[in-house]
Amino acid sequence: MVSRFGIYLPTVLLGVLIAYFGFHALTGERGLLSHHRRQETLELRQATLADLKKQRADLEARARLLSTHSLSADLLEERARSLLGFVAPGDYVIRMPAQSG
Fold it and tell me: What's the predicted TM-score (pTM) here?
């Protein structure tokens, strides 16, 4: 009796293996049915990239103004006052929390 079922064992194992890989091909992290989730992640990361590019352009513009070739006196004074904590007579100081991001 055991030998009768033994001949079907490789077929059953192969069927289970095919079902396992088929299930994960459809529903896995990179499966066929997860396209919507990947698209949302892509859109989120593209928005983050656009934000980072904007921040980088702003920082590059500020760095250009602080370079020795085209020094902006206003920007230099603003940075010096900010870093050293000095204010001119008659200036009003409004402390605000630092922005993260």
Answer: 0.48
Cα–Cα separations (whole angstroms), residue 50 to 28, 33, 56, 63: 29, 28, 10, 20
Query: Which residue is associated with the tokens 């590059």?
Result: 60
Q: Which two tokens stand for residue 64?
A: 């250009």
Please check whether residue 75 is in contact with residue 68, taking contact to mean a CB–CB distance below 8 angstroms: no
- For the CA atoms of 14, 19, 21, 23, the dihedral, rounded to the nearest 10 degrees, stands at 180
CA 27 to chain centre: 24
Runs of H (alpha helix) within the chain: 2-6, 9-27, 35-65, 73-84
Q: How far apart are CA 98 and CA 86, in angstroms?
A: 18
pLDDT tens per residue across span 12-45: 999 999 999 999 888 888 888 888 888 999 999 9
Task: Tell me the per-residue pLDDT of 44-96, one tens digit each, with 9 for 90 and over.
Answer: 999 999 999 999 999 988 888 777 676 777 777 777 777 777 777 777 777 77
